[in-house]
Amino acid sequence: MEDVKSAPCLKYEEEWLALSKVDIEMTGLKEKIMEGELRASRFRSVIWRLLLGALTPGYPDLWSEETKASREHYKQLKESIAVKPCLISEPERDNPLSTNEKSSWHQFFCDKELKCLIKQDVVRTFPGVDFFRSEEIQEAMISILFCYARENPTMCYRQGMHEVLAPVVFVVKSDHHALLHTKEQITLRSDILYVVNPDCFEEDSYTLFRRIMNAIEGSYLIPNVAPTSTGYFPCPTNAGTGANENQVIAQLNWIKEILLAPSDPELHDHLVKLDIPLPLFGIRWLRLLFGREFPLQDLLVLWDAIFADNRSFDLVNYIVVAMLSSVRKTLIEADYTNCLTTLMRFPAVTDISLIIDYALHLKNPTVYKVPSKFKSIPKVSNKAKEKKTKVMNGPTSTNNRKFVPNNVHRPAQLQSPSYDQDLHFSDRYLLHEPDLLLRELKHAQNIISLCSAKLAQYHRVLEKSVDPNDVQAHSALTGMQELSNLLADNVRKSEPMAVEPAFEAQEKIVSPTAKKPPISPTDKEQVKLTQPPSRPRSVEMTLLKSTSMPIKEDDLEAAEFTLSLLKLS
Predict the structure, then answer these.
(1) For the Rab-GAP TBC domain, which residue ranges apply (predicted)?
(2) Which residue of 38, 118, 331, 381 has the fewest CB atoms within a 10 Å radius of its CB?
C-alpha cells in the first residue's frame, strides 16, 4: 500500500530529473508543450523560467545561483524603494507639509497613492476565482506591481498589468502547493527545495512577471508621455507624434493586412465593410495576453505555447488571427452589433489546442498542418505567401519593435488626418481620435434599445400567463414595463454631444478651454464671419425600426446597467 502511495511522489522527482536533462534548445520540451502536456506539470513555473531565460536550460547546476541572483534583485529593489520618512534627520526641512518633490514625505505620499491605485485593480482580479480573493495573494500582487512601477519609471503602472501578473502568481503558488504536498511524504532533493521555495513566492513571481512585461511592453507604452510619481499619465504632448510611434496600433494593422487578409480575405473584407478595426478589441487581447478571452486553465496552456515559441512572443500575432478564424462563421453572418459583441466577449472555446494548432500552422505551414476544424478557410495563395514572406523578414514581435502598417490597405477610418497626427492611446481608446469612442457609444446605444424592446416583449408574454391575484408578480411586471419605458425615453430624449477623448483612469484632464484670454466683441464678430455654420454632432444608426438615435453621455451608464440585466438573464 505504501508503494502505491509514494508513486506520485516518485513521479514528482522523475519530472524534475527529466527537466534537468533538457538540452539547451529545449526541443523535446517545446514539442510536449505545443501538444498541451504541461496541464498536469508540477514544475510549470520552473519551465516558464527556462523558456523566458531566467534559468539556463541544459545547465541545472547553475539554477540555484541564477535563482539566488534573481531573488536578491527583488529583495534589494524592494528595500531600496521603501521610504521611511519618520527616520529623517532634518524634520525642519523635510516634513509632511513640504512641497519639495525630493522630500521623503512627498515620496511617501506618492507611493501610498500609487499603491491605492494598484489595489483598486488587484481586488477585482479574476472575480470568479477564489484564489485571488486571498488577502495574502492581493498584498503580494500589490507589492510586485509597485516594485515594477518603481523599477520602470517610464512605464510605471498601467491598468491591465495586474491581469498579466495574475496567472503568474497562480502558477508559482500551485508549484509551491505541489512541493509542500510531496514534502510531507518523501524527502526531496536539495536543489528542488531551493529552486521551488515557498518562502520566495514574491521573488519568483516578480522574476517571471518582469520578463513577460519586457516582451509585451510595446502594448503599454504611450508615446511622448511620462507618468507622474503617483502613477498617473498626464495629457500627451503633441511633439514628435507619428504613425509609427504607437506600436500596438501598428502591430494590429500589420496583423490585419499581412496575416488575416491573405489567410482569410472574406473575413478581412467583412470586418472592413462593417467598419470594425482590430484596435477596438485587439488592444485588450495583446495587452492582457488574451487574459479575459479564455478561462484560467486554458489561458495557462495558451501561455505555455507563447513562451515556448520564442521569447519575443511572435506567436501572439498568429493567435489573434486564429481566434478570429475560430469564430469566422459567426462573424461572417453577423451585423455590426452582433459582430462587435462576439469580438468584445469572445465565446467559450471547446478546445484551446485548436487555436494554438492553427496559429502554429499560420506561422509555419510546412511544419504544422491545418486543424480539421479550420479546413473550410480558403487556402493562402502563392502570391499571398510571397508577400507574407517578404514582410516576415522584418520585425514582428511585441518587444520594442516597430510595426509599419500598409497604408494602402488601411480601412478608411484609420487613414483620417487626426489618426496619423496623434496616435496616443489610453486603455482601449485613441486620445484626440473620437472614431473608436463613437463606435463604443453606438454599440451601447444599440444595447439600450435592444434591452428596452426585449423587456417590452417579455412583459407582454408574461402578462398573459401571470395569475391576476398574484400581487408580487404584477408588481414585478409593472417594474419591467417602467424599466422598458425608462430606457426608451433615455434613447428618445438624448441630446447630441461632442465626444471628448478618453483618458487613463484617474488621469488628470486638462480642459481645452482653460486659461484662454477673453475675446473682444470685435474678435467675436470676426470669428463668426470666418467660421462655417455649425450643426450638432450625432450618431445615426439603424436598429429594430431604423430609429435614428443621437447619443448623450448618460447612455454609457444606462448601458452598463442594461448589460448587467443581460448577464442576469
Answers:
(1) 38-310
(2) 381
Give the number of other CB atoms < 10 A from CB of residue 37.
13
Backbone angles phi, psi at 273, to 5 degrees: -60, -40
Spatial distance between the Cα atoms of 157 and 233, rounded to a whole number of angstroms: 10
Extract the C-alpha cell encoding 340: 462587435
Per-residue pLDDT of 190-210, as tens digits, reads: 999 999 999 999 999 999 999
Tell me phi and psi for residue 152, to 5 degrees. Answer: -125, 75
Output b/e per residue, 121-155; b: 16+ Cβ within 10 A: bbeebbeeeeebeeeebbebbbbbbbbbbbbbeeb
State the pLDDT at residue 304.
97
Cell numbers placing 45: 513555473
Structural contact between residues 52 and 311, judged by C-beta atoms closer than 8 angstroms: yes
Best CA proximity match to 267, nearest among 346, 323, 332:
332
Residue 429 is classified by DSSP as E
Cell numbers at residue 444, please?
A: 451601447
341 to 204, 278, 447, 538: CA distances (angstroms): 38, 13, 10, 22
- Cβ pair 220, 158 in contact under 8 A: yes
Distance (Å, whole) CA 291 – CA 552: 31
User: In 217-375, which ranges are continuous DSSP H helix?
Assistant: 247-254, 261-263, 265-273, 279-287, 296-309, 315-326, 328-332, 336-344, 352-363
Fold of the domain built from segment(s) 247-432: Cyclin A; domain 1 (1.10.472)
Which triple of cell numbers denotes residue 121?
485593480
Is residue 175 within 8 A of residue 166, CB to CB? The reply is: no
- Phi then psi for 316, rounded to 5 degrees? -55, -40
Grid-cell match 479564455, residue found? 294
| Angle value at C-alpha 435, between 444 and 509, nearest 5 degrees | 90
| pLDDT tens by residue, 254-295 | 999 999 999 999 999 999 999 999 999 999 999 999 999 999
pLDDT > 60? residue 569: no
C-alpha cell at 449: 434599445
* Cβ atoms of residues 313 and 397 within 8 Å: yes
Please give the pLDDT value at position 545: 35
Amino acid occupying residue 345: R
**pLDDT tens, position by position, 33-75:** 999 899 999 999 999 999 999 999 999 999 999 999 999 999 9
Counts of helices then strands in the chain (DSSP H, E) = 24, 2
Q: What is the pLDDT of residue 229?
A: 57
Q: Which residues of 257-293 are buried (b: 16+ CB within 10 A; e: fewer)?
A: bbbbbbbbeebbebbbebebbbbbbbbbbbbbbbbbb
